[in-house]
Amino acid sequence: MPASSFDTNDSPGRIDLDHNATTRPHPEVVEVVARHLRESYANPGSRHAAGRVARRTLESARERMAELLGAEPDEVIFTSGGTESINLFLFGRAQGSPGTIALTAGEHPATIEACRHLAERGWKLHTLAVDSQGRLIPEQHDSLPWDSLRLATVILAHNETGVIQDIAPLAARCRERGVPLHLDAVQAVGKVPVDFRSLGVSALSLGAHKFHGPRGVGALLLKRGVKLAPYLFGGHQEQGRRPGTEPVALIAGMAKALEFWSERRDEIMRNVAALRDRLEGRLRETCGPVVVHGEEAPRLPNTLNIAFPGLDGEALLVALDLEGIACSLGSTCASGSAEPAPALMAMGCSLDVARASLRFSLGVDNTAEEVDDAARRIAAVVGRMRDRGKG
């Protein structure tokens, strides 16, 4: 995708390699949101002409998103984003007597913190182990506490490493046992093809700002027949599952962003993967020794989590920011923590390697020239820091 489609950079010289944290809304998305703020401003629950206009916009977006994600329109529940979608399912299903919840080692904070809160209510947590590449270990499925297991949740594509899980074996076992399986697909939707029906799971969470949509809106896909108790109260919107007046303009923008990606997905995935591989190759050549996390596993086409052994990741992050490179230590939701990334520790990384790791995540607005420039700047910073370490 040519950079001209996003040629709105107001920080010349700065290079954004932190697209897993958030993405710049596409200009067409901004136009859709602005138009519906003007034209579909009414409450979609109101029984007058303006309300009906808003309702048509809302339901049209729901139908389009369902079509693009392999779901039925009544399986789409609009929320404020990925975090709420995850919480909505976990708390909505964790009703009655406590049981066991299975979750992936190194999960996103939205899932970990929700599960920890449920543990305070008496729920037991069972961690699904991953191998050195961040992949779920299928052999462990036989030893899951199936008799007490009431919920399972897995991160489909990891926000830190980009590793994509093969969830088919676990999904099949969960269906056999009648255990609802939820997927955190916040980093997957809009980066790789996601088909809800084919995945065969009970629920799936997504957030618009990860794929060039507006911030503050997302969705939970909930399979027909799966019961979900509301954990917010005050209205009957979204089939009584998520109260609150729907943000019609943002929802329309989210549908537009997903449509934009879906119509160009092969081109976008190919181009972004080429840029990621170009950056990885340059850093291997100029910054060795390095460690690429999850390099043998299927990864998101845009994500590179790489360690620079001997360096401190936090110091490197600051130095790169001063050089105009935006990247991350991992989940932005966990920023401020001095602890090494749980996902890397779950993969068996040494503490030193985990603390020397950074995440670079590319997007459609990056160019080959930017990648080469970024690689030169990163190599210069890494070289200086290593030289100082020798002194």
Question: Can you characterise this structure?
Answer:
It is a single chain. The chain is an alpha/beta fold and 391 residues long. The chain is 39% helix and 13% strand. Strands 2-8-7-6-5-3-4 form a seven-stranded mixed sheet, with helices on both faces. A three-stranded antiparallel sheet has the order 9-10-12. It has a two-stranded parallel sheet with strand order 1-11. Helix 5 links the parallel strand 5 and strand 6 (181-184). The protein is globular, with a radius of gyration of 21 Å.
Give keywords:
seven-stranded mixed sheet, three-stranded antiparallel sheet, alpha/beta, 13% strand, disordered N terminus, 391 residues
Which class best fits the helix and strand makeup?
A: alpha/beta
> Which shape, going by the Cα principal axes?
globular
Q: Give unreliable regions as ranges.
A: 1-5
Report the C-alpha radius of gyration, rounded.
21 Å
- pLDDT averaged residue by residue: 94
Lateral strand order in the biggest sheet: 2-8-7-6-5-3-4
Binned strand content: 5-15%
Classify the oligomer.
single chain
Order of helices and strands: EHHEHEHEEHEHEEHHEEHEHHEH
Q: How many β-strand runs?
A: 12
Fraction of helical residues: 25-40%
Q: Separation of termini? A: 44 Å
Sketch the major β-sheet. 7 strands, mixed
Task: Outline the secondary-structure elements.
Layout: E1 15-16, H1 27-39, H2 49-69, E2 76-79, H3 82-93, E3 100-104, H4 109-120, E4 124-128, E5 149-155, H5 168-177, E6 181-184, H6 196-199, E7 203-207, E8 218-222, H7 248-263, H8 265-287, E9 291-292, E10 303-307, H9 313-322, E11 325-326, H10 342-346, H11 351-355, E12 357-361, H12 368-390
Parallel strand pairs: 1-11, 3-4, 3-5, 5-6, 6-7
Antiparallel strand pairs: 2-8, 7-8, 9-10, 10-12
